[in-house]
Queue: 4 jobs
Job 1
Amino acid sequence: MLRRLLCLFLLVATPAVADWKDEIIYFVMVDRFADGDPSNNEGVNLENPLAFHGGDLKGLTERLDYIADLGATAIWLTPVNQQGPSIEVAEGTFQPHHGYWADEFNAIDPRYGTEDDLRALVEAAHARGIKVLLDVVYNHVGYNATWTKTRPHWLRQGAECGGDAITLCLAGLPDLKTERFDVRSAILDAHIGLAERTGVDGFRLDTYKHIDPDFWAAHRVVTRLRLGEDFFLLGEIWDGDKYLAKAPFEADTLDGIFDFTFRDHVQKMLTGIEDPERFARYFTNRHDIEGDKVLAPFLSNHDMPMLLAMMRGDTAKLRQAFALLMFAEGPPVISWGEEQGRRGKAWPLNREDMDWTGGDTALTDDVKALIALRRAEPDMRGGPVQTVYAANGLLILRRGAVTLALNLSDTPVPVVQGLGKRVLFGGDPMALAPSGVAIFAAD
């Protein structure tokens, strides 16, 4: 009976998430962004890339004007639950600065701040027209978390860990038995209760594929009942693309997923591994998905080296990548400092602190211009993509009246006349520089 009611609810309820297709999401790892309250800097060690570095919710709130000036319209912030103990690894003492090792779901870690701080952040963001997407974890708790002693029957550990995606103890973390009603009730109430009290606009759902679909069906029902039909659910499915999105989109348990293949194809093309013709085939078909669901493209995240590091610091190619990001269907995601040329290498160096001295200001200005252009030109946000030309080191794509041209070669190339008259971004499309980019309109 319960399953039938859940299915009926999912068929009738229709989420109002279409506006998320037009959002520009700025991703912040709270601990690595800005320190607004030095009094909560417990265990901070700036010399250790695995330690807490002092960033907190007050610091993020104080820097909202920077994010708004960049042009972002939504913030995704890492989990803020009370974290568990540190662990020792080969690289040194690993503190849970990232927020993914929860110890208590009903409390905020004081190193990030308080629930009042989160509420104040949301209110300040909303005052600037910025939505807030809170990262939440339903799959596991932290190493040696309190529940491993007080509620071991709620967890899979050791020999109980299975070999499939659902019963796997990811990275050896104690795995929550979300199939149990008491476990499900406790964690749903904790996360959804926090959202109710603070007014966040959606969840970024960590490790989506490691939890049973029945849990996500129940999750959708409860979030809609308690948080409203427009509460946005963005899932992390590693290597996610339109094919892996098919099942959760058809089941309507997610509104969107991160498009991992976008970064992969962009990196391969800009480093010469993939030719422009193959990239164009991918790009023109990547967003062929269910209804009003979204694939969120990104260039970098906190679990991989920054794209700039993979391109050996070539900021000209990063500009091209940003142009593609802003030309793609779905809400683009920018990782903190990426717009300044943050060049985080392999873990743990990919989680550098935000550089508040300014970084590459010329790159930042170009990213601002691209964001402003996407927001001003509806054709850059929706509608089919056509391949105009993709060969000989030149890629030209068109969406409506807007055309994007990339010179992937190391020599200047002219772009075919008649494609556009008004230059919107970049250099002269009639003499496109090596690694150059131009966006122009037909009028």
Job 2
Amino acid sequence: METNYHLPVDAALFPAGVTRCSLSKFLLWIGCVLAVLMWGGYAAFLVLRDGLGHTGLDDYFGFGLWITFDLAVIALGAGAFFSGFLRYILNIEPLKNIINLAVIVGFICYSGAMMVLVLDIGQPLRAWFGYWHANVHSMLTEVIFCITCYCIVLIIEYVPIILEQRQINKNKLYHNIAHNLHVFMPLFAGVGAFLSTFHQGSLGGMYGVLFGRPYAFREGFFIWPWTFFLFILSAAASGPTFTVLICSLMEKMTGKKLVSYDVKALMARIAGLMLAVYLVFKFLDTATWILSLTPRAGLTFDQFFYGWIYGKWLLVAELIVCGVVPCFMLLNPATRNNPATMYLAAFLNCTGVTINRYVMTVQSLAFPALPFDAWATYMPNWVEWAACALVLAYGALLLSVSYRYLPIFPQEVELNGGAKAAHH
């Protein structure tokens, strides 16, 4: 039997028919990722050892960069539940070529968000209190249970991808487990969509019930403040485009085509439709907030904004630059079918939901709600940035290993002719 010495030493572990960079190049990349991981791990160690005093959080800002990052990551990770719903429940066949990536990105986002929450608790040894001593009057209780259960669902969806690894799948038991999990995947996709929808909504509802924070407070639709529904819609609108951006970034880094452009364009069109629906309700929400809720609170629109960091430009950026503009670009075939404009629209869409989570979190807390208060300033320090970098490095590590050894992209062999060399 002839040995192919030109192949990487771990080539037997690659998905069938694909090529990867040399092991030395891959390990060099992993080394860079691990360096960032260690930096973030050191920051996490300081917080877990000594408490939140290492951060820039204080009595005004119990929520800061971590929660903004956490909420943005959870919203962008919604590509998993929404794409799963579209693929397995609505049976949109072309999405089979990107659904594995959506699942992995969703798992990274949700597990990474839970890592940040462990740090933000302040006393991690009491993390189990939320499950055992649940506060039934708090929306965060529903968030705790739904995000935990949905993370379990993502693990279940991730397992068959692992079991289909070239060498593992040779075992008949693992092969049959993977096959049977695929058979029941519509069930898990439905459960995941239900759980993720409710915890996305409850994260928004948490802000909507803060009557002492007039920037965030909203009135209700039945038993929910309408921020409940706005958070669901914004997540469904931004999640698919985030998956597309991750796929495109991987293509740039590897020098290979992984998913055909028509699949990306389909995801972009669906995201554009969801963004249009979201913007209709978001503009209604903003108009009601300005014209009705604000005067009844004895305030004016101008009072909600201060300086540059809390300026009105954030509202314009969120609704127009990162809302209306990408919505038009994603729905217009001419711009959607052009990779440069489509990727720009996807980036703006993801930026818009991040701005929304920032203003709902930080600006709501910074606003002087009491007569003797003044605008509060908040600046995250290196510990908070390092903790966020920890999650990003964790995601890069997991995604890199998954891409190298797991069959994530069904179209990769076809799109690359089966024998093109890869570059990391």
Job 3
Amino acid sequence: MACRLPLAMPLAFSSSQQLVLPVTEGIDLLPAYLRDEQRVVASLLDPLHLVALGPGHYRYRVTKVQVFQLQIQPIVELQTHHRGDRLELEAVDCQLEGLGLVDDFQLGLTSWLQPSDQGLEGEATLAVTVSQPPLLKLVPPRVLEATGRSVLSGILLGMRNRVRLQLLKDFQQWRLNKGHGGQAES
């Protein structure tokens, strides 16, 4: 009886980050700020790597990531949606530069921000499914998946830190430019 190796299963890993961002001044203006979606997206992501493709549609070059000996750079197309006061951002397409040997790479990103009684709250989930690259065939899948989760967590943590620093600063600047004495223009 011949022994058959199982077919390679794709690697799958994901990570999530939640955000609670206290806002002390102008909390009532947060819904209007979130409707200025292009400005908010530019504050959430590095504007040097962001290209607006049309209303609510963007292309974003994620910072290069080093995984073992491979250096990869995801290029993600993003779509925004408004659901009431909630701004949602999701990846609708993704390509990889630097990992030409993998045809079945899939990246999922869903995130949202919405006003709360304390300020802004939100969540981002990043997930990847990919076959094991030939260059990494000797690395056990569990090690690759753990490394993948760690990389995704690092990307989300970087995004979360940027949101904490940049989004609040941008909101305050928007509020001062938009509001006269704290009142939003109609």
Job 4
Amino acid sequence: MPEKPKNENVQLPCRPNDNTNASGPPENLPISGLYAKFAQRAVPEELKTELHLPDGVTYGEALAMALFKAAIKGSVLAAREIRESAEGKASTRRNPEGPQKFELLVSYEPPLLAMVPKDNPDAPHE
């Protein structure tokens, strides 16, 4: 079986620890950092032509355009992704008036009536 070539001298175009921009991608998220750097690259000419993209468009801009097109065509998932990216996840609904007391009425019907102990003060009167 042939030996795999050693890639010791191969340098990746995007390395997660090359963060010289203080506002750049965080170094503790290496995959996200690579995504952020890749999103800033220009789309190659053949892909740009295939997707009918304008000159100088980046992968990030192309992705945003694709998401907006999908959302406009009715994709709820694309619309949700855009909203959550802009506004964050929807918070859980809360009662603006605060907690309220309520009364719960329970009625027992056969065969459950037979399960209620006779000495229970909440037992229905026969």
